[in-house]
Amino acid sequence: KDTVAGVMCFYSAESGFFTEDLLLTLDEMALAVSFALTYFAREVERGRALEKLQASEQRFRALIEWSPEPFIVHHGGEILYVNPAFVNLFGASAASDFDGKSVVDLIHPDSRQVALSRIEKILLHGDAVPMVEQRLLRLDGTAIDVEVQSKSIVYEGQRCICAVVRDISERKRREETQARLAAIVENSNDAIFSRS
Predict the structure, then answer these.
(1) How many other CB atoms are found less than 10 A from the CB of residue 86?
(2) Cα distance between residue 115 and residue 140, in whole Å
(3) How confident is the model over 163-185, as pLDDT tens digits?
(4) Going by C-beta distance under 8 Å and a sequence separation of 6 or more, which residues neighbour residue 6?
């Protein structure tokens, strides 16, 4: 940017006061002051950008912390972050209950191969993978049916996987109940009437 940052004026009532050496010194001084002002302006702008970034990160963290959807971030299998909704879904008392745990520990054996394949795909291609139904394990070992959607993100300077988990256990129970009732009706030799 070729902008004027300021003007330096030197005046002398004495003729010939400004010698060639003095003019060169003043020119070097003006360049040094110009550099310092430019550097200072850059640092001020960098500080503003950093403040904006920190404010954005705080807004994002608040959004994730208060989201009713469970979030997890993991890297190389190690769980790095879980939000309060995730803590609640998995029957934990605090996020620290996941310290030292591997994400694989939370995947039901029936879903493990599919989950690991999806993790590998994200790591190889860096893309999001579509939502899929899986079975996971709460910390007490209870199986839960969920939908999981995952994406590669940068978290604390490293490429990680962020997953959003939705509990569909209740929906699955309703579907199973409806299927059983439909089978009973279809296999019944009795007449069945319904009032609406």
Answers:
(1) 24
(2) 20
(3) 999 999 888 888 888 888 888 87
(4) 33, 37
How far apart are alpha carbons 185 and 136 in whole angstroms? 33
Q: 75 and 155 in contact (C-beta within 8 Å)? A: yes
How many alpha carbons fall within 13 Å on the CB side of residue 149? Answer: 6
Contact 115, 107 (CB under 8 A): yes
Rounded average pLDDT over 33-50? 87
Q: Are 173 and 124 in contact (CB under 8 A)?
A: no
CA 177 to the chain's CA centroid: 37
pLDDT, tens only, 113-142 = 999 999 999 988 878 888 999 999 999 999
Rg of the chain, C-alpha, whole Å = 32
Residue 101: name the closest of 126, 52, 137, 134 by CA: 137
